[in-house]
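User: Here's a protein and a ligand (adenosine-5'-diphosphate). What would the complex look like?
Assistant: Let me lay out the input and then the predicted complex.
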Amino acid sequence: MEKSDSGREELIQEIAGQKKELPELEADANSGDQLEDMALSDIIDIGMIKSIMEKFYQLTGMTGAVLDLSGRVLVAIGWQDICMKFHRINPETKKNCLESDTILTQGVEAGTYKAYKCKNNLWDIVTPLFIDGKHVGNVFFGQFFYADEETDIDLFRQQANRYGFDQEEYLEALAKVPHFRREDVQIGIEFYANLAKVFSQLSVRNYQKTKMLEERNKALEIIEQKNMELRRSNKELEQFAYVASHDLQEPLRMVSSYTQLLERRYAEKLDQDAKDFIGFAVDGATRMQQLINDLLDYSRITTRGKEFKECDANLIVKQAIINLQMSIEESKAVISCDPLPRVKADSSQLERIFQNMIENAIKFKSSKTPKIKIGVSDNGNEWIFAIKDNGIGIEDSYKDRIFVIFQRLHSRKDHPGTGIGLAICKRAVQRHNGRIWFESKMGEGSTFYFSLPK
Ligand code: ADP
Protein backbone atom coordinates (compact mmCIF):
# COMPACT_ATOMS: atom_id res chain seq x y z
CA MET A 1 0.00 0.00 0.00
CA GLU A 2 2.90 2.31 -0.70
CA LYS A 3 1.95 5.70 -2.07
CA SER A 4 4.03 8.61 -3.29
CA ASP A 5 3.96 11.70 -1.09
CA SER A 6 1.97 13.70 -3.63
CA GLY A 7 -0.48 10.82 -3.99
CA ARG A 8 -0.84 10.64 -0.26
CA GLU A 9 -1.38 14.40 -0.08
CA GLU A 10 -4.12 14.07 -2.63
CA LEU A 11 -5.74 11.36 -0.59
CA ILE A 12 -5.54 13.46 2.54
CA GLN A 13 -7.23 16.29 0.71
CA GLU A 14 -9.89 14.01 -0.55
CA ILE A 15 -10.65 12.38 2.71
CA ALA A 16 -10.56 15.24 5.17
CA GLY A 17 -14.08 16.44 5.63
CA GLN A 18 -15.08 15.93 2.02
CA LYS A 19 -17.27 13.80 -0.10
CA LYS A 20 -15.77 11.62 -2.76
CA GLU A 21 -17.33 9.80 -5.67
CA LEU A 22 -16.80 6.06 -5.68
CA PRO A 23 -17.00 5.39 -9.41
CA GLU A 24 -18.07 1.77 -9.32
CA LEU A 25 -20.98 2.50 -7.04
CA GLU A 26 -24.27 3.90 -8.02
CA ALA A 27 -27.54 4.54 -6.29
CA ASP A 28 -30.40 2.15 -6.68
CA ALA A 29 -32.43 4.82 -8.38
CA ASN A 30 -35.99 3.80 -7.84
CA SER A 31 -39.24 5.31 -6.69
CA GLY A 32 -37.93 6.10 -3.26
CA ASP A 33 -41.01 6.55 -1.18
CA GLN A 34 -42.14 2.99 -1.15
CA LEU A 35 -40.42 2.09 2.06
CA GLU A 36 -43.01 4.14 3.88
CA ASP A 37 -42.67 3.62 7.56
CA MET A 38 -40.95 0.27 7.70
CA ALA A 39 -38.15 0.19 10.26
CA LEU A 40 -34.70 -0.31 8.79
CA SER A 41 -34.16 -3.14 11.24
CA ASP A 42 -37.12 -4.96 9.65
CA ILE A 43 -35.61 -4.74 6.20
CA ILE A 44 -31.91 -5.36 6.51
CA ASP A 45 -30.38 -8.64 7.54
CA ILE A 46 -28.67 -7.45 10.70
CA GLY A 47 -27.20 -10.86 11.53
CA MET A 48 -25.45 -11.15 8.18
CA ILE A 49 -24.13 -7.58 8.27
CA LYS A 50 -22.84 -8.08 11.77
CA SER A 51 -20.97 -11.24 10.88
CA ILE A 52 -19.24 -9.64 7.85
CA MET A 53 -18.28 -6.57 9.84
CA GLU A 54 -16.92 -8.71 12.64
CA LYS A 55 -14.65 -10.59 10.24
CA PHE A 56 -13.42 -7.33 8.72
CA TYR A 57 -12.73 -5.98 12.19
CA GLN A 58 -10.75 -9.10 13.12
CA LEU A 59 -8.66 -8.70 9.97
CA THR A 60 -8.07 -4.97 10.02
CA GLY A 61 -8.96 -3.67 13.49
CA MET A 62 -11.33 -1.24 11.80
CA THR A 63 -14.53 -0.72 13.72
CA GLY A 64 -17.85 -0.66 11.97
CA ALA A 65 -21.46 0.28 12.55
CA VAL A 66 -24.83 0.60 10.90
CA LEU A 67 -27.14 3.34 12.12
CA ASP A 68 -30.55 4.41 10.93
CA LEU A 69 -31.22 8.05 10.19
CA SER A 70 -32.48 8.76 13.67
CA GLY A 71 -29.09 7.67 15.04
CA ARG A 72 -30.30 4.29 16.29
CA VAL A 73 -27.36 1.89 16.36
CA LEU A 74 -28.32 -1.37 14.63
CA VAL A 75 -24.86 -2.91 14.43
CA ALA A 76 -21.72 -1.89 16.34
CA ILE A 77 -18.50 -3.86 15.96
CA GLY A 78 -15.27 -3.25 17.87
CA TRP A 79 -16.18 0.15 19.16
CA GLN A 80 -13.49 1.89 21.13
CA ASP A 81 -13.58 2.26 24.91
CA ILE A 82 -13.19 5.99 24.45
CA CYS A 83 -16.56 6.03 22.74
CA MET A 84 -18.36 3.34 24.70
CA LYS A 85 -17.12 4.17 28.20
CA PHE A 86 -16.83 7.95 27.87
CA HIS A 87 -18.28 9.78 24.86
CA ARG A 88 -21.48 7.80 24.61
CA ILE A 89 -22.04 7.82 28.38
CA ASN A 90 -21.64 11.47 29.35
CA PRO A 91 -24.85 13.32 28.34
CA GLU A 92 -23.00 16.20 26.66
CA THR A 93 -20.51 14.14 24.69
CA LYS A 94 -23.33 11.71 23.87
CA LYS A 95 -25.14 14.63 22.27
CA ASN A 96 -22.00 15.21 20.20
CA CYS A 97 -22.05 11.56 19.13
CA LEU A 98 -25.67 11.75 18.04
CA GLU A 99 -25.04 14.97 16.19
CA SER A 100 -22.05 13.38 14.48
CA ASP A 101 -24.06 10.26 13.63
CA THR A 102 -26.93 12.21 12.12
CA ILE A 103 -26.26 15.81 11.15
CA LEU A 104 -22.65 15.41 10.00
CA THR A 105 -23.71 12.52 7.77
CA GLN A 106 -26.38 14.43 5.93
CA GLY A 107 -26.12 15.05 2.23
CA VAL A 108 -23.95 12.05 1.46
CA GLU A 109 -25.28 10.66 -1.76
CA ALA A 110 -25.50 7.02 -2.75
CA GLY A 111 -22.17 5.77 -3.97
CA THR A 112 -20.24 8.50 -2.16
CA TYR A 113 -18.62 8.67 1.24
CA LYS A 114 -17.72 11.38 3.66
CA ALA A 115 -14.85 11.52 6.09
CA TYR A 116 -15.24 13.84 9.04
CA LYS A 117 -13.92 14.44 12.50
CA CYS A 118 -16.67 13.65 14.94
CA LYS A 119 -17.58 16.28 17.46
CA ASN A 120 -15.50 14.44 20.08
CA ASN A 121 -12.48 14.66 17.76
CA LEU A 122 -12.08 11.18 16.33
CA TRP A 123 -12.19 10.33 12.64
CA ASP A 124 -15.27 8.76 11.15
CA ILE A 125 -16.09 7.67 7.62
CA VAL A 126 -19.67 7.32 6.53
CA THR A 127 -21.24 5.86 3.44
CA PRO A 128 -25.00 5.88 3.01
CA LEU A 129 -27.28 2.88 2.84
CA PHE A 130 -29.86 3.31 0.10
CA ILE A 131 -32.74 0.90 -0.18
CA ASP A 132 -35.07 1.10 -3.14
CA GLY A 133 -33.71 4.54 -3.94
CA LYS A 134 -34.27 5.89 -0.47
CA HIS A 135 -31.61 6.89 2.05
CA VAL A 136 -32.47 4.79 5.07
CA GLY A 137 -29.31 4.62 7.14
CA ASN A 138 -25.54 4.82 7.15
CA VAL A 139 -22.65 2.43 7.34
CA PHE A 140 -19.82 3.82 9.43
CA PHE A 141 -16.34 2.93 10.21
CA GLY A 142 -14.22 5.12 12.33
CA GLN A 143 -13.06 5.92 15.84
CA PHE A 144 -9.47 6.12 14.65
CA PHE A 145 -6.61 8.54 13.99
CA TYR A 146 -4.47 8.81 10.90
CA ALA A 147 -1.02 7.35 11.38
CA ASP A 148 0.58 10.49 9.98
CA GLU A 149 -1.29 12.72 12.40
CA GLU A 150 0.08 13.68 15.76
CA THR A 151 -2.52 12.92 18.46
CA ASP A 152 -3.36 16.16 20.21
CA ILE A 153 -3.23 14.78 23.75
CA ASP A 154 -3.83 18.23 25.21
CA LEU A 155 -7.10 18.50 23.39
CA PHE A 156 -8.27 15.25 24.99
CA ARG A 157 -6.99 16.34 28.40
CA GLN A 158 -9.16 19.40 28.03
CA GLN A 159 -12.08 17.23 27.02
CA ALA A 160 -11.54 15.09 30.13
CA ASN A 161 -11.62 18.21 32.31
CA ARG A 162 -14.60 19.74 30.52
CA TYR A 163 -16.76 16.64 30.82
CA GLY A 164 -15.45 15.40 34.17
CA PHE A 165 -13.84 12.18 32.89
CA ASP A 166 -11.22 10.42 34.99
CA GLN A 167 -8.19 11.78 33.11
CA GLU A 168 -5.98 8.77 33.55
CA GLU A 169 -8.62 6.29 32.41
CA TYR A 170 -9.65 8.56 29.57
CA LEU A 171 -6.09 8.90 28.27
CA GLU A 172 -5.67 5.14 28.60
CA ALA A 173 -8.72 4.67 26.38
CA LEU A 174 -7.30 7.30 24.01
CA ALA A 175 -4.05 5.36 23.77
CA LYS A 176 -6.02 2.33 22.56
CA VAL A 177 -7.54 4.21 19.62
CA PRO A 178 -5.92 2.75 16.48
CA HIS A 179 -3.82 4.77 14.02
CA PHE A 180 -4.36 3.83 10.41
CA ARG A 181 -2.40 4.68 7.33
CA ARG A 182 -4.40 6.72 4.84
CA GLU A 183 -4.11 4.09 2.14
CA ASP A 184 -5.50 1.48 4.53
CA VAL A 185 -8.34 3.81 5.38
CA GLN A 186 -9.01 4.10 1.66
CA ILE A 187 -9.27 0.32 1.41
CA GLY A 188 -11.64 0.37 4.38
CA ILE A 189 -13.73 3.02 2.66
CA GLU A 190 -13.98 1.03 -0.50
CA PHE A 191 -14.76 -2.15 1.38
CA TYR A 192 -17.55 -0.52 3.35
CA ALA A 193 -18.95 1.43 0.40
CA ASN A 194 -19.17 -1.79 -1.61
CA LEU A 195 -20.60 -3.59 1.37
CA ALA A 196 -23.23 -0.86 1.72
CA LYS A 197 -24.20 -1.43 -1.87
CA VAL A 198 -24.48 -5.19 -1.43
CA PHE A 199 -26.55 -4.65 1.73
CA SER A 200 -28.78 -2.29 -0.22
CA GLN A 201 -29.39 -4.78 -2.97
CA LEU A 202 -30.05 -7.65 -0.57
CA SER A 203 -32.25 -5.41 1.51
CA VAL A 204 -34.31 -4.41 -1.52
CA ARG A 205 -34.93 -8.08 -2.09
CA ASN A 206 -35.82 -8.55 1.59
CA TYR A 207 -38.02 -5.52 1.41
CA GLN A 208 -39.80 -6.76 -1.69
CA LYS A 209 -40.25 -10.15 -0.09
CA THR A 210 -41.63 -8.56 3.06
CA LYS A 211 -43.92 -6.38 0.96
CA MET A 212 -45.13 -9.38 -1.01
CA LEU A 213 -45.76 -11.30 2.19
CA GLU A 214 -47.59 -8.32 3.61
CA GLU A 215 -49.76 -8.08 0.51
CA ARG A 216 -50.41 -11.80 0.59
CA ASN A 217 -51.38 -11.63 4.23
CA LYS A 218 -53.64 -8.69 3.50
CA ALA A 219 -55.32 -10.64 0.69
CA LEU A 220 -55.70 -13.67 2.99
CA GLU A 221 -57.23 -11.44 5.64
CA ILE A 222 -59.76 -10.11 3.13
CA ILE A 223 -60.62 -13.65 2.01
CA GLU A 224 -61.02 -14.76 5.61
CA GLN A 225 -63.24 -11.76 6.30
CA LYS A 226 -65.38 -12.52 3.23
CA ASN A 227 -65.60 -16.15 4.33
CA MET A 228 -66.77 -15.07 7.74
CA GLU A 229 -69.38 -12.79 6.18
CA LEU A 230 -70.51 -15.65 3.96
CA ARG A 231 -70.75 -18.03 6.89
CA ARG A 232 -72.72 -15.47 8.86
CA SER A 233 -75.06 -14.71 5.99
CA ASN A 234 -75.54 -18.45 5.34
CA LYS A 235 -76.38 -18.95 8.97
CA GLU A 236 -78.83 -16.07 8.88
CA LEU A 237 -80.42 -17.50 5.75
CA GLU A 238 -80.72 -20.91 7.37
CA GLN A 239 -82.27 -19.31 10.40
CA PHE A 240 -84.65 -17.41 8.17
CA ALA A 241 -85.66 -20.51 6.19
CA TYR A 242 -86.26 -22.38 9.40
CA VAL A 243 -88.24 -19.66 11.17
CA ALA A 244 -90.24 -18.74 8.07
CA SER A 245 -91.21 -22.32 7.29
CA HIS A 246 -91.95 -23.09 10.90
CA ASP A 247 -94.12 -20.01 11.40
CA LEU A 248 -95.90 -20.39 8.06
CA GLN A 249 -97.23 -23.80 8.99
CA GLU A 250 -99.72 -22.51 11.54
CA PRO A 251 -101.64 -19.97 9.35
CA LEU A 252 -101.56 -22.48 6.52
CA ARG A 253 -103.21 -25.12 8.68
CA MET A 254 -105.90 -22.54 9.43
CA VAL A 255 -106.54 -21.84 5.75
CA SER A 256 -106.83 -25.51 4.91
CA SER A 257 -108.97 -26.52 7.90
CA TYR A 258 -111.39 -23.59 7.49
CA THR A 259 -111.85 -24.21 3.77
CA GLN A 260 -112.55 -27.87 4.57
CA LEU A 261 -114.99 -26.79 7.28
CA LEU A 262 -116.67 -24.48 4.79
CA GLU A 263 -117.12 -27.39 2.43
CA ARG A 264 -118.54 -29.68 5.11
CA ARG A 265 -120.94 -27.20 6.70
CA TYR A 266 -122.30 -25.53 3.60
CA ALA A 267 -122.18 -28.46 1.20
CA GLU A 268 -125.87 -28.16 0.33
CA LYS A 269 -125.73 -24.44 -0.24
CA LEU A 270 -122.69 -24.56 -2.55
CA ASP A 271 -122.93 -25.28 -6.23
CA GLN A 272 -120.38 -27.54 -8.03
CA ASP A 273 -118.16 -24.60 -9.05
CA ALA A 274 -117.84 -23.43 -5.45
CA LYS A 275 -117.01 -27.01 -4.38
CA ASP A 276 -114.34 -27.24 -7.09
CA PHE A 277 -112.85 -23.93 -5.99
CA ILE A 278 -112.70 -25.11 -2.40
CA GLY A 279 -111.06 -28.32 -3.66
CA PHE A 280 -108.36 -26.25 -5.46
CA ALA A 281 -107.79 -24.15 -2.36
CA VAL A 282 -107.39 -27.25 -0.15
CA ASP A 283 -105.11 -28.85 -2.72
CA GLY A 284 -103.00 -25.66 -2.91
CA ALA A 285 -102.75 -25.44 0.86
CA THR A 286 -101.73 -29.12 1.09
CA ARG A 287 -99.06 -28.62 -1.52
CA MET A 288 -97.81 -25.54 0.21
CA GLN A 289 -97.66 -27.49 3.44
CA GLN A 290 -95.55 -30.11 1.68
CA LEU A 291 -93.20 -27.45 0.30
CA ILE A 292 -92.82 -25.88 3.72
CA ASN A 293 -92.10 -29.27 5.26
CA ASP A 294 -89.49 -29.88 2.59
CA LEU A 295 -87.94 -26.50 3.24
CA LEU A 296 -87.79 -27.26 6.93
CA ASP A 297 -86.22 -30.63 6.15
CA TYR A 298 -83.67 -28.94 3.93
CA SER A 299 -82.70 -26.35 6.51
CA ARG A 300 -82.49 -29.05 9.21
CA ILE A 301 -79.66 -30.77 7.32
CA THR A 302 -77.33 -28.15 8.74
CA THR A 303 -79.24 -26.90 11.77
CA ARG A 304 -80.08 -30.34 13.16
CA GLY A 305 -77.15 -32.34 11.79
CA LYS A 306 -75.78 -34.96 14.15
CA GLU A 307 -72.20 -35.78 15.03
CA PHE A 308 -70.34 -38.03 12.56
CA LYS A 309 -69.87 -41.52 13.92
CA GLU A 310 -68.49 -44.69 12.46
CA CYS A 311 -71.30 -46.74 10.96
CA ASP A 312 -71.88 -49.68 8.64
CA ALA A 313 -73.10 -48.48 5.24
CA ASN A 314 -74.64 -51.93 4.57
CA LEU A 315 -77.06 -51.48 7.48
CA ILE A 316 -77.86 -47.95 6.39
CA VAL A 317 -78.80 -49.04 2.86
CA LYS A 318 -80.82 -51.93 4.32
CA GLN A 319 -82.86 -49.48 6.40
CA ALA A 320 -83.39 -47.16 3.40
CA ILE A 321 -84.74 -50.16 1.44
CA ILE A 322 -87.07 -51.09 4.31
CA ASN A 323 -88.40 -47.50 4.33
CA LEU A 324 -89.18 -47.83 0.61
CA GLN A 325 -90.70 -51.29 0.86
CA MET A 326 -94.12 -50.29 -0.47
CA SER A 327 -92.93 -48.60 -3.64
CA ILE A 328 -90.37 -51.36 -4.22
CA GLU A 329 -93.13 -53.94 -4.11
CA GLU A 330 -95.42 -51.84 -6.28
CA SER A 331 -92.80 -51.30 -8.94
CA LYS A 332 -91.30 -54.78 -8.58
CA ALA A 333 -87.91 -53.10 -8.49
CA VAL A 334 -84.90 -55.39 -8.16
CA ILE A 335 -82.23 -53.92 -5.95
CA SER A 336 -78.73 -55.34 -5.57
CA CYS A 337 -76.03 -54.01 -3.34
CA ASP A 338 -72.27 -54.67 -3.26
CA PRO A 339 -70.64 -55.11 0.15
CA LEU A 340 -70.20 -51.60 1.52
CA PRO A 341 -67.56 -50.24 3.90
CA ARG A 342 -67.82 -48.74 7.34
CA VAL A 343 -67.84 -44.96 7.11
CA LYS A 344 -67.77 -41.96 9.41
CA ALA A 345 -71.02 -40.12 8.91
CA ASP A 346 -74.25 -38.75 10.31
CA SER A 347 -76.09 -42.07 9.85
CA SER A 348 -79.58 -40.61 9.49
CA GLN A 349 -78.38 -38.22 6.78
CA LEU A 350 -76.57 -41.02 4.98
CA GLU A 351 -79.78 -43.07 5.12
CA ARG A 352 -81.63 -40.09 3.67
CA ILE A 353 -79.16 -39.81 0.78
CA PHE A 354 -79.51 -43.48 -0.17
CA GLN A 355 -83.26 -43.41 0.32
CA ASN A 356 -83.78 -40.33 -1.88
CA MET A 357 -81.60 -41.77 -4.61
CA ILE A 358 -83.23 -45.21 -4.58
CA GLU A 359 -86.66 -43.57 -4.45
CA ASN A 360 -85.82 -41.50 -7.54
CA ALA A 361 -84.46 -44.57 -9.32
CA ILE A 362 -87.87 -46.21 -8.82
CA LYS A 363 -89.90 -43.04 -9.45
CA PHE A 364 -88.19 -42.24 -12.73
CA LYS A 365 -88.33 -45.78 -14.10
CA SER A 366 -88.87 -46.52 -17.76
CA SER A 367 -91.27 -49.14 -19.11
CA LYS A 368 -88.78 -51.82 -18.02
CA THR A 369 -88.77 -53.36 -14.54
CA PRO A 370 -86.55 -51.13 -12.45
CA LYS A 371 -83.13 -52.61 -11.75
CA ILE A 372 -81.10 -50.73 -9.21
CA LYS A 373 -77.52 -51.47 -8.30
CA ILE A 374 -75.71 -49.93 -5.37
CA GLY A 375 -71.94 -50.09 -5.51
CA VAL A 376 -68.83 -48.49 -4.09
CA SER A 377 -65.26 -47.84 -5.19
CA ASP A 378 -62.19 -46.93 -3.22
CA ASN A 379 -60.65 -43.69 -4.48
CA GLY A 380 -57.74 -43.42 -2.07
CA ASN A 381 -58.84 -40.88 0.51
CA GLU A 382 -62.52 -41.22 -0.26
CA TRP A 383 -65.24 -43.75 -0.94
CA ILE A 384 -67.32 -43.22 -4.05
CA PHE A 385 -70.85 -44.64 -3.82
CA ALA A 386 -72.88 -45.24 -6.96
CA ILE A 387 -76.64 -45.80 -7.35
CA LYS A 388 -77.31 -47.05 -10.84
CA ASP A 389 -80.75 -47.43 -12.43
CA ASN A 390 -82.20 -48.43 -15.80
CA GLY A 391 -84.77 -45.62 -15.79
CA ILE A 392 -85.73 -42.83 -18.16
CA GLY A 393 -82.41 -41.03 -17.92
CA ILE A 394 -81.66 -37.31 -17.59
CA GLU A 395 -80.69 -34.89 -20.30
CA ASP A 396 -77.16 -33.59 -19.95
CA SER A 397 -78.34 -29.98 -20.07
CA TYR A 398 -80.04 -30.47 -16.67
CA LYS A 399 -76.74 -31.35 -15.02
CA ASP A 400 -76.62 -28.27 -12.78
CA ARG A 401 -80.35 -27.79 -12.31
CA ILE A 402 -81.42 -31.00 -10.69
CA PHE A 403 -79.54 -30.45 -7.43
CA VAL A 404 -81.16 -27.04 -6.94
CA ILE A 405 -83.98 -26.85 -4.42
CA PHE A 406 -87.52 -27.26 -5.90
CA GLN A 407 -86.13 -27.83 -9.41
CA ARG A 408 -87.94 -30.60 -11.28
CA LEU A 409 -87.72 -31.80 -14.82
CA HIS A 410 -91.10 -33.49 -14.92
CA SER A 411 -94.67 -32.46 -14.23
CA ARG A 412 -96.32 -33.37 -10.94
CA LYS A 413 -98.87 -35.34 -12.89
CA ASP A 414 -96.30 -37.74 -14.38
CA HIS A 415 -94.05 -38.03 -11.36
CA PRO A 416 -95.09 -36.71 -7.96
CA GLY A 417 -92.58 -34.81 -5.87
CA THR A 418 -91.51 -31.30 -4.93
CA GLY A 419 -87.94 -31.28 -6.18
CA ILE A 420 -86.30 -31.28 -2.76
CA GLY A 421 -84.80 -34.80 -2.71
CA LEU A 422 -81.53 -34.16 -4.56
CA ALA A 423 -81.07 -30.73 -2.97
CA ILE A 424 -81.19 -32.45 0.41
CA CYS A 425 -78.74 -35.10 -0.82
CA LYS A 426 -76.34 -32.42 -2.04
CA ARG A 427 -76.52 -30.50 1.20
CA ALA A 428 -75.99 -33.60 3.30
CA VAL A 429 -73.08 -34.76 1.13
CA GLN A 430 -71.48 -31.33 1.34
CA ARG A 431 -71.88 -31.35 5.10
CA HIS A 432 -69.74 -34.52 4.98
CA ASN A 433 -67.17 -32.72 2.77
CA GLY A 434 -68.09 -34.93 -0.15
CA ARG A 435 -69.10 -34.35 -3.76
CA ILE A 436 -72.22 -35.37 -5.66
CA TRP A 437 -72.84 -35.80 -9.39
CA PHE A 438 -74.49 -38.07 -11.93
CA GLU A 439 -73.97 -39.66 -15.31
CA SER A 440 -76.92 -40.52 -17.52
CA LYS A 441 -78.02 -41.59 -20.95
CA MET A 442 -81.54 -40.77 -22.06
CA GLY A 443 -83.64 -43.93 -22.25
CA GLU A 444 -80.92 -46.11 -20.72
CA GLY A 445 -80.63 -45.00 -17.16
CA SER A 446 -78.70 -42.87 -14.71
CA THR A 447 -76.02 -43.38 -12.12
CA PHE A 448 -75.86 -41.01 -9.17
CA TYR A 449 -72.52 -40.76 -7.37
CA PHE A 450 -71.46 -39.25 -4.12
CA SER A 451 -68.16 -39.33 -2.31
CA LEU A 452 -67.40 -39.51 1.39
CA PRO A 453 -63.93 -38.72 2.68
CA LYS A 454 -62.47 -41.60 4.66
P1 ADP B 1 -88.27 -34.89 -6.90
O1 ADP B 1 -87.88 -36.32 -6.95
O2 ADP B 1 -89.09 -34.51 -5.76
O3 ADP B 1 -88.76 -34.37 -8.19
P2 ADP B 1 -85.44 -34.51 -6.73
O4 ADP B 1 -84.67 -33.35 -6.23
O5 ADP B 1 -85.21 -35.81 -6.06
O6 ADP B 1 -86.92 -34.08 -6.66
O7 ADP B 1 -85.12 -34.68 -8.26
C1 ADP B 1 -85.14 -33.57 -9.10
C2 ADP B 1 -85.40 -33.97 -10.53
O8 ADP B 1 -84.28 -34.72 -11.04
C3 ADP B 1 -86.55 -34.92 -10.65
O9 ADP B 1 -87.76 -34.20 -10.78
C4 ADP B 1 -86.23 -35.66 -11.94
O10 ADP B 1 -86.61 -34.89 -13.04
C5 ADP B 1 -84.72 -35.72 -11.93
N1 ADP B 1 -84.22 -37.01 -11.43
C6 ADP B 1 -83.79 -37.31 -10.22
N2 ADP B 1 -83.38 -38.58 -10.10
C7 ADP B 1 -83.58 -39.15 -11.32
C8 ADP B 1 -83.37 -40.46 -11.87
N3 ADP B 1 -82.85 -41.47 -11.16
N4 ADP B 1 -83.69 -40.65 -13.18
C9 ADP B 1 -84.20 -39.65 -13.92
N5 ADP B 1 -84.44 -38.41 -13.46
C10 ADP B 1 -84.13 -38.14 -12.17
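Summary: The chain has 13 helices and 14 strands.
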